[in-house]
Amino acid sequence: MSAREQDDRRDDRRGARDLASVLPFAAVFLFLPPFILIFTAPVAPGGIPLIVLYIFGIWALVIVCAAIVAARLSASGERDEATRRPDEPAKS
Amino acid sequence: MLPADLVIIACIAYVALLFAVAFLGDRRARRAPGGWLSSPLVYTLSISIYCTSWTFFGAVGSAVRNGLEFATIYIGPTIVFVGWWVFLRKLVAVGRTYHTTSVADLISARFGKSSALGALVTIIAVVATTPYIALQLKALTASFQVLTYPAGAVAAASLSLKPDFSIAFWIAAGLCAFSIIFGVRNISVNERHHGVIAAIAVEAVVKLVALLAVGLWVVLGHEGGPTAMFQNAPANLTNPADTFGSRWVSLVILAGAAVICLPRQFQVTVVENTSERQLRTASWLFPLYLFLICLFVIPIALAGLQRLPEGSNPDLFVLTLPFSADQGTIGLLAFLGGFSSATSMVIVSSIALSTMISNHLVMPLALSLRLVPDASARLMRNFILTARRASIVFIVFLGFLYYRLSATSDALAAIGLISFCGVAQFLPSLVGGLYWHRATQTGALAGLAAGFAIWAYSLFLPSFEGAFLLPASAIADGPFGLGWLKPHALFGLDRFDPLVHALFWSMTANLTLFLGVSILTDPTPLARYQSRLFIDIFRRQTESELSVMRRTAKIRDLRGIANRILGPGEAVSLFVTQNAHDHAMTASDELIATVEQKLAANVGAATARALVSSVVSSETISVEELKRLADETEQIRAYSEELEQKSREIEATADELARANRQLREIDERKDEFLSQVSHEVRTPMTSIRSFSDILLQNPEMEATQKQRYLGVIQEESLRLTRLLDGILDLNQQGAAGTRAAATTFDPELALDHALASCEALARAAGVGISRTKPVRRAVVDGDRDRLAQVFINLISNAIKYNSARKPSVTIATRVRKGRYEAIISDNGPGVPEAERETIFAKFARGAAAGQTGAGLGLAISRQIVTGFGGTLTVSQSAEGGAAFTISLPLAQPARHASGTG
């Protein structure tokens, strides 16, 4: 593996970790007032109240992001894990 | 209605299925440990034990009563799981590494294996879980009663049926039996509860399928689309602004805390975890499960409100809706879904709590009262197992008692939230313990005790509505008429609902005391040691760290304990390296630590420590050493960062060097190539000059015309040679002088004029017509005018010389575009094939077509000159099919522009 590929992988892993750390805070921001209050307007696009669409939409989005993060972490972390003995804590 | 017999048979058949799954799971796990039973999918499904009958029945009820509020119970865990990297990962790693048996074990182990802390956490957990178990019994009983009510389920749901406690009792008894049979077979958590987990995973699928089936049936059977469905929606759904207040925030926090702290969640998430891979998958799969569970809650709630008679119990909509449309099969499926969600919760909760009770209450008590039968290993293990079995019965019985006492209490969700708030008290100690070195066991004890007391006073006891301990008058007006002590409005804070109020006061007291007392007290040496192990879980332990604790014990004594708790089989493997006659000798620190860790996996850290301490004759933990190590760790951390930085720099330098080396090699190769080409080019005319002069010298009497012809050839060849050498010289000058060439600012059109004048004679001789577009005005470029003229001459003469068209013509167009001056010299000759468009600019390259004479250096030189000016020279196909050479030069800076044209 070339130095550049290694760098890329390291960057990739670091990026996935950063994303993993930011995700819960983004979710907190989106699900809690005051931000969520924006979507409480009594309108119903397609017959469904906006707030219902918002909550379930954001929920789905957060899950998709988490799945992407998990996939990227696993793609870059599999090798590290494989070389580790069982029951030994991961080294960060 | 359904006949009671049928329902009972369905239940028994279902339980039999669970037994089979649990049995097969256990057997499979023994045969092939690490098979699909420890796959991330099964792990995730076991975590979804979070969705109990509160979810299955109560979510719809909650949606009817409070609108979107039901979602908070699932949004909180979603946030915790998608944020696993921040907290859960560390918690699970600690639990996995130190073989934690329960949440009480983890907290007590972190704070110096304190048995007091373990006991307190256990008591809180048992008390807080009681309402939760009661909730399951209530839901099970109610659904059973409704299902078998003679006048039909729909009628039953709109009456308020008196709970039938005999049904509840038999359900409780059945649950005890299952939990005991599969949950308490062995005492070690190293051998995890594979059978139970397999059964729980099946139940997770059943409840999801059941709820989705009811949901799909409702949505697909509904006429009129979403508009009609939401038409009669309660106001809190259509106008939800009021939903998102303090209660919303509190519930999200509570649910997030509960998914970590609830004993059963801790059991399935931390204790049963075997690898980080499992958690990584669960981080999105578990939120997805919650999402799917919630997806149809609102449609079911709305359909129930529309189709069922007014006054129907919304907590039973999931069940009564199918029956109202005579869908007995879906109804029975819904009943089984609720049944499975309730049973799985009770089973795992009672297993988790029984482990806690036996490890943190029974064992320490029995040890200190010398009640433990230490005569034989079998007796000892039987004692522990009996303690656990009795605990299961005790826990389920407590739940039953709570249900009896508070039977009048209304909604399922309200009961569940009491439990959530109780177990949330663990959160400060848990989070603080994993991130804060200064947290002490006294602080944790104080915080937990205060939080628990306030929770019990302001939320738990009032939930009995006067039936237990706190009389109804005290709940309404405060004890002894003291208004500021009213359980739901402590210190006159009456603006919030009871749950938010209790959460606020209990958490405030808990946090304040935890932080304050921790700051004021010092941790014990063992707590200090443990904090290092837990907080730095992702760092490798160093040798010196493990030797901080020095203990002496006889191997014989140690082996005695191991025999009793672990059984002879495992004990032998532990002591296999020790010779039999060594047994009177002292054990190494390492051996003592290993034995203690193995014991901890069975009976919890605190009890294990108590057991080991009973045979340890001396123990020292050097606080000085610990502090020194902490400093050292800091230094090592800084040092390693520095090293990493250095190595990155070195890596970069090495890369740079490698690149330079590559470049040098390339240049060297090009030079060799150039030299061999030059020799070859020089050699050809030299050979012909030599051979023709040889002929002339050897044949003096040759005919004059012949002589003349040969001399002509010689002259021509030497001219070619001169041209060649001139070219090479030129090229080298360019290469050497390159950028140093005197740069002035000039009008490129003047250079073009000059070039055209030079080529006029050549063009006329070849009969080529040259046309030129209107010159651009006021364009100036940087460079050398004569050099540019040379390039023009070269290109124009090429266009004239190599034009084989019948009516040859050359067109010269100039323009200014995007800050660049462009000159295009095109002809209608044969053109340059696409493949050769780059190679013709190489040195000594000549077109492939016939009649191409010359040194092959002109284009190379031209390109070098243009590149020297910062421009480009390219070739493409002209409109007439010939070649079109484009010179593109950057325009000079405006400042110099003025002086240049002036």
TrEMBL record, chain A:
Keywords: Membrane, Transmembrane, Transmembrane helix. The chain crosses the membrane at residues 21-44, 50-75. This is Uncharacterized protein.
From TrEMBL, chain B:
The keyword NADP does not apply. GO terms for molecular function: phosphorelay sensor kinase activity; transmembrane transporter activity. Residues 626-677 form a coiled coil. Its EC number is 2.7.13.3. It catalyses: ATP + protein L-histidine = ADP + protein N-phospho-L-histidine. It comes from the Bacteria. Residues 677-893 form the Histidine kinase domain. The chain crosses the membrane at residues 6-24, 36-59, 71-88, 116-135, 167-184, 196-220, 244-263, 284-308, 328-353, 386-405, 411-436, 443-461. GO terms for cellular component: membrane. SUPFAM superfamilies: ATPase domain of HSP90 chaperone/DNA topoisomerase II/histidine kinase, Homodimeric domain of signal transducing histidine kinase. It is an enzyme of class 2 (transferase). It holds the Pfam family HisKA. Keywords: Coiled coil, Kinase, Membrane, Phosphoprotein, Transferase, Transmembrane, Transmembrane helix, Two-component regulatory system. InterPro entries: HATPase_C_sf, HATPase_dom, His_kinase_dom, HisK_dim/P_dom, HisK_dim/P_sf, Na/Glc_symporter_sf, Na/solute_symporter, Sensor_HK_Regulatory. It is a multi-pass membrane protein. It is found in: Membrane. Belongs to the sodium:solute symporter (SSF) (TC 2.A.21) family. This is histidine kinase. It comes from Nitratireductor arenosus.
